[in-house]
């Protein structure tokens, strides 16, 4: 079957991020942020995917054959594409963004570009604010092993030409020191302005200016940067025994000392310094990746903004919801009708308000919630703690295997346990990625009614301001009853899976449900009737589902894919995917919602989901796809989806080419159109 490598597909996504940094239409400092996102993404890619490929290369040939893996070839292709993108990244920074900053009277200077007066100022700054933060370590015979922290920038000092001619024993020395970014308070230093000209210096270059003072015994001091990324794959998904929490705690401790995945180094670094580094760290040649003079571009998230609003996207304040009350009871409003929430366009505060209301409402008896990634200062968990304190039965399904968020989740799980909440951890072979909230309340007639919130996004108020998601508030018994069954399954995953009519739930019901929906479209197409599928997901990776889409395409089903990240399916091939079109969207917000639409013989079915079409989501995670049953809300989802389908400003095709407006067609930027449409929604509803 024809599919694209998962890793090469992911790199295509990061190339789209880089395109945003290159776009003159994107505000200047937002372009710098896209460089930071690109850099951060690539760090994670090496820590997880490249590290995994390298582990696979160490398997025996027979084992690799059984797995159907060709890791050496894929690794070679991946590293070649990374090198190409890194070159493009560097050219974007040097040839586009630096000149653009200069044109706006902002000068990011290197140490070599400093005027005498600026160099003197930097030297004083070094003595007053930086020197005491430094603690270089000599790479000599007294040091047996050098440990480099994951993701930290280090500076190497190569000392030569001792001023004392008798010091032949120390004619050359190599020292290493962590760049003190956190203790300094940031990576950048603002120099004094000169008229309307503003100047910025990397902290690295401040240290370069002062390096001669650090080592006065040497006439020559060369300073270069390095950064190590370590293997971050926890490798516990396949384990089926032992205490999971202890495994997680142990894995977090090991992560800091994991195997090296990549050592970025300055190509101008003296060979002697690089050789000493390899000797003292155990880094091998295959882990060396040529970088540039500066590393950790994610630090550009903290680049000075100089108070210039034009350097950022126009502000889009979070909108009030058109049907949820700004004050008063949200539970009562949800009891009357369903409501769709669209963060970040609409305020995520409705979710935290609902939790705070449930925590204090004397008629609420129980709250159940799934927690995959929570904010470091989580108002969501604080509301749950208050509910437990007030005597509510709080059940929290906390996912300890949410990569890079395990430590935060452990912290809040401990807090909830101490408050008396029932904290549930999924077994090692299963991840809970669904986003569910269920509130049980005693009504006036003494019956108990359930109120639910189903979402594509995490219960995380920080990411809710950056990721586009859909959330459904509902008291519809058809959905809340089945949500309660999912929570029961999470309490005992060894029990028989519940039989559900409306929700499609992985790992037991999502794949069969999707296959049945695809089968229906294929049957319709073979009868000559209209048949279509629209999918908006972050990733399509599962070969089984790709094969089903190929089958549907060959049967005549029209298929539209909106894929943000990994897309292994090859669209537009005459022999298997001639009826499939694919596009992706990268803009100011990260597209995160998943929507599945099936024509279904004129009775269109629309599902909103937490699940991408990846094997892990379909088979090894608890995921929920929920139907939009209300006709008006279904039309609302379709309208927002149509903006994305017809975007001709920020959409790219499968080959990362921008999809331009046709002749006579007006420009349509989906995220901008979404914000404007939702802003006018209440006004339109009043007129109706």
From TrEMBL:
One of its GO terms (molecular function) is polyphosphate kinase activity. An intermediate of this reaction is the autophosphorylated ppk in which a phosphate is covalently linked to a histidine residue through a N-P bond. Its cofactor is Mg(2+). The active site is at residue 433. It catalyses: [phosphate](n) + ATP = [phosphate](n+1) + ADP. Keywords: ATP-binding, Kinase, Magnesium, Metal-binding, Nucleotide-binding, Phosphoprotein, Transferase. This is Polyphosphate kinase. It comes from Hymenobacter ruricola. The gene is ppk1.
């Amino acid at each position: 079957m024809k599919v694209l490598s998962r890793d090469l597909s992911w790199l295509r996504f990061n190339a789209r991020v880089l395109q945003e940094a290159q776009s003159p239409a994107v505000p200047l400092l937002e372009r710098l942020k896209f460089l930071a996102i690109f850099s951060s993404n690539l760090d994670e890619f090496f820590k997880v995917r490249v590290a995994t490929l390298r582990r696979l290369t160490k398997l025996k040939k027979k084992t690799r054959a059984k797995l159907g893996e060709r890791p050496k070839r894929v690794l070679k292709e991946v590293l070649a594409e990374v090198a190409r993108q890194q070159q493009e990244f560097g050219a974007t920074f040097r040839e586009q963004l630096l000149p653009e900053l200069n044109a706006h009277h902002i000068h990011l200077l290197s140490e070599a570009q400093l005027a005498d007066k600026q160099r003197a100022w930097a030297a004083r700054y070094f003595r007053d604010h930086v020197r005491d933060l430094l603690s270089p370590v000599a790479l000599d015979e007294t040091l047996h092993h050098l440990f480099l922290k994951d993701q930290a920038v280090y500076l190497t000092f190569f000392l030569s030409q001792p001023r004392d001619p008798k010091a032949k024993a120390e004619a050359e020395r190599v020292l290493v020191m962590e760049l003190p970014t956190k203790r300094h308070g940031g990576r950048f230093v603002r120099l004094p302005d000169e008229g309307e000209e503003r100047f910025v210096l990397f902290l690295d270059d401040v240290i370069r200016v002062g390096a001669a003072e650090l080592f006065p015994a040497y006439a020559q001091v060369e300073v270069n940067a390095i950064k190590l990324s370590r293997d971050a794959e926890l490798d516990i998904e396949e384990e089926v025994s032992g205490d999971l929490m202890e495994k997680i705690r142990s894995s977090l401790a090991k992560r800091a000392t994991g195997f090296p995945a990549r050592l970025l180094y300055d190509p101008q670094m003296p060979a002697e310094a690089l050789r000493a580094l390899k000797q003292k760290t155990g880094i091998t040649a295959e882990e060396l990746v040529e970088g540039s003079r500066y590393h950790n571009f994610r630090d550009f998230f903290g680049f000075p903004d100089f108070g210039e609003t034009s350097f950022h996207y126009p502000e889009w304040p979070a909108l009030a919801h058109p049907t949820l009350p700004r004050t008063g009871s949200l539970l009562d409003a949800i009891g009357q009708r369903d409501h769709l929430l669209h963060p970040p366009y609409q305020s995520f505060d409705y979710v935290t308000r609902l939790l705070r209301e449930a925590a204090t409402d004397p008629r609420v008896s129980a709250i159940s919630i799934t927690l995959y990634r929570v904010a470091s200062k989580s108002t969501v968990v604080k509301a749950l703690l208050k509910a437990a304190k007030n005597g509510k039965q709080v059940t929290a399904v906390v996912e300890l295997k949410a990569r890079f968020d395990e430590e935060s989740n452990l912290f809040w799980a401990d807090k909830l346990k101490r408050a008396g909440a029932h904290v549930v951890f999924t077994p090692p072979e299963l991840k809970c990625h669904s986003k569910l909230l269920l509130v049980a309340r005693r009504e006036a007639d003494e019956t108990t009614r359930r109120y639910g919130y189903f979402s594509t996004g995490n219960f995380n108020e920080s990411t809710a301001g950056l990721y586009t998601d859909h959330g459904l508030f509902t008291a519809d018994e058809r959905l809340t009853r089945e949500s309660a069954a999912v929570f029961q399954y999470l309490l005992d995953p060894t029990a028989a899976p519940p039989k559900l009519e409306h929700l499609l739930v992985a790992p037991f019901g999502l794949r069969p449900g999707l296959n049945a929906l695809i089968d229906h479209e294929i049957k319709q197409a073979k009868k000559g009737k209209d048949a279509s599928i629209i999918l908006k997901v972050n990733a399509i990776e599962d070969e089984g589902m790709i094969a089903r889409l190929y089958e549907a395409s060959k049967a005549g089903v029209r298929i539209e894919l909106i894929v943000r990240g990994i897309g292994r399916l090859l669209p537009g091939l005459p022999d298997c995917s001639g009826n499939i079109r694919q596009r992706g969207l990268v803009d100011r917000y990260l597209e995160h919602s998943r929507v599945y639409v099936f024509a279904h013989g004129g009775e269109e079915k629309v599902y909103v989901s937490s699940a991408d079409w990846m094997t892990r989501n379909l088979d090894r995670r608890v995921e929920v796809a929920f139907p939009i049953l209300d006709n008006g809300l279904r039309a609302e989802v379709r309208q927002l989806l149509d903006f994305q389908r017809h975007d001709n400003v920020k959409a790219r095709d499968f080959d990362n080419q921008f999809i331009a407006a046709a002749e006579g067609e007006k420009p349509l930027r989906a995220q901008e159109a979404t914000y404007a449409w939702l802003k006018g929604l209440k006004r339109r509803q009043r007129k109706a």
